[in-house]
Amino acid sequence: MIYSVNGTLIHTEPGAAVVECGGVGFKCLTSMGTLRTLPAPGAQVKLYTKLNVREDAMDLFGFATLAELNCFQLLTSVSGVGPRVALSILSELSPEKLALAVAAGDSKALTRANGVGAKLAQRIALELKDKVKQLGAPGAAPAGPAGESGPVSAAGNAANAVAALAVLGYTPSEAASVVAKFDSALPTEELIRLSLREMGSRL
Questions:
Q1: How far is 142 from 157, CA to CA, in rounded Å?
Q2: Residue 130 lies in a domain
């Protein structure tokens, strides 16, 4: 298992980045989200990786953050979601937006990705939301899909953020302790973003 690659970025192209480590160039298949964060070739970069082994090939996937890698692994755990579809979703939705969509049961947001139809989007939202329930995440009713109106309490924002972070693989207790550090009146997506930054700073 290759946990990460840390070296010189020598090439980028749609869907891939090549990082040279110790004279070896590692081609990492990646999302547009990660590609947008990369510096110009010649700079030093670190990508968190997942090696996918098939009968006819070995593909290395690379991500700018652990949150995005966690999302990738969760997505590919869903029946019918392969690595390419997972990358397509992460090219359209950041980890924060994906977690929020799943926690809110907003399958429509997932259909923005190429190769994701309504039925597959519903399956992804349902299966990943079930994972949150199995983890024992808070059962507060999440905010509705984007575009729906209605009051959302500050406590609800925090609960939604904790549930969304559980989608990304964090335990409810860990997520709750980090979310509690921030103003619960902030929008849910902002609470998720700040919490992911805080968690990432520990690594």
A1: 8
A2: yes
pLDDT at 185: 87
Contact between residue 170 and residue 97 where contact means Cβ atoms under 8 Å apart: no
**pTM of the predicted model, to two decimals?**
0.76
Residue 54: give the domain boundaries: 4-63
DSSP of 104-159:
TT-HHHHTTSTT--HHHHHHHHHHHHHHHHHHT---PPPPPSTT------HHHHHH
Q: Residue 115: give its domain's CATH number.
A: 1.10.150.20
Gap between the Cα atoms of 100 and 98, Å rounded: 5
How many domains does one find in the chain? Answer: 2
Residue 183 CB neighbour total at 10 angstroms? 11
- Per-residue pLDDT tens over the stretch 72-118: 998 999 988 999 999 999 999 988 888 888 878 889 999 999 999 99
Reported as a single tens digit per residue, the pLDDT across 90-101 is 999 988 888 888
Q: Which residues contact 54 (CB under 8 A, 6 or more apart)?
A: none
